[in-house]
Amino acid sequence: MDSLSMWEATAGKRKKRPTLVDDKHCDVVIIGGGFSGLSTSYHLQKMGHKTIVLEKDTVGYGASGRNGGELLTGYHGTMETFAQKKGFETAKLMWELSLDSIDLVENISKENGISCDLVRQGDIRPAYKVSHLDRFKRDQEYLAEKLNFHGVSIIERSEMKTELNTDFYHGARINERGAHFHPLKFALGLADAVEGLGGMIYENSEAVNIQRDSTSKVIITTPKGRVIANEVVIVTNAYAGNLNKTLEKSVIPVESIMIATEPLTEELMQELIPKNRAVSDSKNLLYYFRRTADNRMAFGGSGRAFGKRAQRMLFDNLREGMVTVFPQLKDAGIEYRWGGKVAFTQDFLPYIGQLEDGTHYAFGYCGKGAAMAVMAGKVLAETISHPDRVNNPLKKENLRPIPFHSQHSKGVGLMKFYMAFQDKYGK
Ligand SMILES: Cc1cc2nc3c(=O)[nH]c(=O)nc-3n(C[C@H](O)[C@H](O)[C@H](O)COP(=O)(O)OP(=O)(O)OC[C@H]3O[C@@H](n4cnc5c(N)ncnc54)[C@H](O)[C@@H]3O)c2cc1C
């Protein structure tokens, strides 16, 4: 699903970056020019390491230039569950890392003068079912009592109109730390910042082969050149090809699609989402939406289709979903339709780690990577620069391919079918 995204159409003129030719040397070569890769490079350059980023297409071509731009806290699951699975101290660090990730995006934007329409008004998770609101309340109690975090509040259905002008939901959880931004403007600004620090970014430079020589140098081959480096980082996330089998078979790519309306009036947008928060609901096949700087509604949801006709139907269904949530938008024209791949892992947690051959990686943000991928880049840079000093709660040991990975496409289809059933008939 490669139609022009609204972000691409509104990001302004792109700087053309070179393609890699001949041999180049650096300390760390980074494969993937999304948030994870650019942030790894940015932080390594700041620590005095010479880096090269290789991007198969152009900066932000993957999920980083296509997402909803919602900067959200937390993970796919509750902190209480993570504390049970991973121990309380690890869960606490995970929570802090997720809060810090949004601060990190804001600080990078400020320090580098990246104008990416960042709005820090919090995020809201409306409850699709009454039982979801009960779950939010338990969550809020856990965060306050155990993690001493008091930035979450709950509103009942009767108060919903102060947040969202819709009857679709049964109340909501609000987190004051959330934000939203223009993701591609941020990616392009971060790329400029990397170059300002002396890092090199090569576009249209797909890494097609990785080898190690007898001196432990890593040699990355692209169609027209090579990079020779001390360390390699692979951050291709859901866009991983067959460059590294273990990484490719550890990630489950899932399609998500978005539509954006034509620019609407300030008054209407103010009426729909008065506090201009980032919204992502609690449906299993969720809707996520937000206002844009030019007063469009950007609305996302689940996507998966083969063939042009099926794709059109998915976008029509998404529009129908938008109008069900906000009947006020029934006459709003849709100007953009696009999609991208979200990376899931087997246990729905992001992984940051190192393969047995020394390759560093980070992936699998499960739809919550706009801020976390930027943080993962910082953690990777710190791990490479000061391996003994890093306390990384998302550290993955012994990454192994998912069994029957080749069947994942069927699995995702079945899972989505089950989720839709749960949304319709579950409690
Ligand atoms: C439609 C959509 C909506 C989303 N909405 C949100 C949201 O609102 N909030 C949120 O938190 N998260 C959201 N996400 C998820 C978020 O965008 C991702 O988690 C995040 O951008 C991941 O960044 P990344 O750098 O790891 O991966 P990517 O941005 O996908 O970057 C990987 C890059 O690697 C490149 N690549 C692949 N193979 C090679 C190779 N061999 N050589 C060189 N380059 C290669 C690709 O071209 C790509 O540019 C959304 C995702 C999608 C698709």
TrEMBL record:
PANTHER family: FAD DEPENDENT OXIDOREDUCTASE DOMAIN-CONTAINING PROTEIN, SARCOSINE DEHYDROGENASE-RELATED. Pfam families: DAO. SUPFAM superfamilies: FAD/NAD(P)-binding domain. It comes from the Bacteria. This is FAD-binding oxidoreductase. Residues 27-382 form the FAD dependent oxidoreductase domain. It comes from Siminovitchia acidinfaciens. One of its GO terms (cellular component) is cytoplasm.
